[in-house]
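quick one: nicotinamide-adenine-dinucleotide bound model?
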Amino acid sequence: MKLLITGGAGFIGSAVVRQAIAAGHSVVNVDALTYAACLDNVAQVADAPGYTFEHADIRDSAAMDRVFAAHTPDAVMHLAAESHVDRSIDGPGAFLETNIMGTYTLLQAARTHWETQGRPDTFRFHHISTDEVFGSLGPKGQFTEDTAYDPRSPYSASKAASDHLVRAWGETYGLPVILTNCSNNYGPFHFPEKLVPVVILNALAGDAIPVYGQGENVRDWLFVEDHADALLTVLEKGQLGRSYNIGGENEARNIDLVHMICAILDRLRPRDTPHADLITFVADRPGHDQRYAIDPTRMQTELGWRPSVTLEQGLERTVRWYLDNESWWRALQNRDGVGKRLGAG
Ligand code: NAD
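yep, here:
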């Protein structure tokens, strides 16, 4: 297929681009190159015959119309977004503009393209979203695809709105849409403002490792390469109009995750004292959701998909990748806001 992938210079989008090219698809990577982007993430496919990069903003309707007309994609995988909850607390406007209005603009351009092509039912608009749209769980229960939306941060509210728009374009205009909501990703090329890389890089530098509140918040952790594999599976085999929850089957409290990373570093890069001594509890995030958990039944039973790595295996691979790719993350540490406490309210 010829895939138009938005946000392909970001963390997850670049994993999808790399896997899609490896699987033999053609890829048009559409990215505005915000602070979160890094073209090095797709350097290994930049010269592949099926790969094209389009520096364009999804909020720019003329640019989106041009990109669709120039490339006539068979499917869209929409990952471009403002993605950091803490930044959404400090500056929600950009989240509403890109995640809501950008998705609207992209939907309209996709719809025009699809209608021009004679409304093929093989076309797909695959919208990539988050489990955060479902809100916060107590100690028990899991999100299913039927869980009511209850977003609580500007980020998750903007993603929820974008999900609603995508479903509306499916129902109202017949656009062939499909949605996925996944849990917290981690892995190689993760921008150094998110929890896992912050822990690794602060531990390596011997700096305090900040943990919000008491570190009791629970997340389900999904290795990014598994997520990319799941997305391509949904694109190829998923049922039109349906949504799929994608999880890692790896629930952990933040504090336990941090201890796991410290233990790996104690083994791979020992220092005089355990890395866990650097853990420092800091003021909690305002409105911090307590727990997210994914019921993976639909992915398992309908598509036969399960994650390939455990949290222990995925973290080991991630830590080793950061140890081996210092020039990648050093260059990003100078970007605006990185290394600072954001979203403290
Ligand atoms: P990211 O912040 O690493 O990358 C986002 C990419 O989108 C960047 O390359 C950026 O330049 C691009 N972008 C931003 N605004 C744009 C615009 N207006 N026009 C074109 N490109 C633009 O994000 P990520 O972590 O890779 O997340 C990708 C998608 O997956 C997002 O939609 C996010 O909501 C979703 N998601 C992420 C996670 C996670 O744990 N990271 C979990 C669930 C869902």
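The pocket of nicotinamide-adenine-dinucleotide is lined by residues 6-7, 9-13, 31-34, 36-37, 57-59, 79-83, 98, 102, 128, 130, 159, 182, 184-185, 191 (CB under 6 Å).
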